[in-house]
Structure formats: C-alpha cells, structure tokens
Amino acid sequence: VQLQASGGGLVQAGGSLRLSCAASGSIRSLNGMGWYRQAPGKQRELVARITNGGTLNYADSVKGRVTISRDNAKNTMYLQMNSLKPEDTGVYYCTLYPFWGQGTLVTGLQ
Fold first, then answer.
1. Contact, 79 vs 88, CB < 8 A?
2. What pLDDT score does 105 carry?
C-alpha cells in the first residue's frame, strides 16, 4: 500500500485547507485511517481518525474546526481544516494502518 498526501501550504490565520491522501495498492475498505501531525520540536500527534467501524475521533485542539472523511470509491481520505491557527503548523501525515504517507507541510501564518 502506498499513500500520497497533498494539499499542504501557507495559510493565513482563519483560513482553510483541504488535505488529501490517495491510497494505492491492496486496500481493505475496513482499515482504519487517520491524520497525524508533527510540529517542529514536538512528537507526532493524532489529529483525526476514522476507525474500521466508521467512528470519527478528533483531537481536542481541532474539534469543531476539522473534518475527516473518506471516499472509498476513490481510495482517498480528506482532512478539511477551517479556522486555521498558527499552532496548526506542522507536517501532516496520513495513515492507513499500518502504512504511512510521506507528509505534507501546513504552515499557519499569524
């Protein structure tokens, strides 16, 4: 399985971004998927995930601002991020457990 994350960039505070994660290879639609991020000097942390049962989980820091979704027909997962804050800055990684993408950089500007 290969995962290709895209959609990162520079965004002014309050702006929006949509990250995409395209999966290729042998994929089971019931695999859990998620987005993690790693800010400079910090450990990688969960942002949002979809469990294999379809439950959505969000980090407290992004609740109400972020929506995770998946399109099984396109083998693609999305992370819609609204009301971005400078503290959302980091490299965002997508995972289709246990596989990981290469990361896409999001920079929230003051």
1. no
2. 97
